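User: My collaborator sent over this chain with a note saying "see what the structure looks like." That's all I know about it. Can you take a look?
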Amino acid sequence: MSWAASAGNGALTRQLDVYGPVMNVWSTKAPLPGPARDELAGAVAHARLFIMGGSPVGNANGVTTTQAYDPVTDRWTTRAPMPTARRAHAAATLKLPGKPSRIFVVAGVLTETMNAVYQP
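Assistant: Without extra context I'll predict from the sequence alone. Here is the result:
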């Protein structure tokens, strides 16, 4: 399963599209809550898609927002905010044997010099 946020003609969107490689089909799912954002980061942990930060229209500073998408219920939930507002950052999931998954958020624009670790 692959997730993609989509936009067209330079406009921001809250649309979430999911690609099923076995059936070679795209389907549209529940939209991202709140204002549309660009320059956000995403990572998968615990069978959920986590979206962090980004830049809504008119906000060049980025946001601390963290949201999780559950593909079973087709719903988004708001999670703990990041410690600093970020946009144009990167996120990756690390799962070590016997340890809970953690999402690492690195770099970004207009943030303090700080990296963060999130445990979903």
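A starting point for your reply to your collaborator: The CA atoms of residues 93 and 103 lie 4 Å apart.
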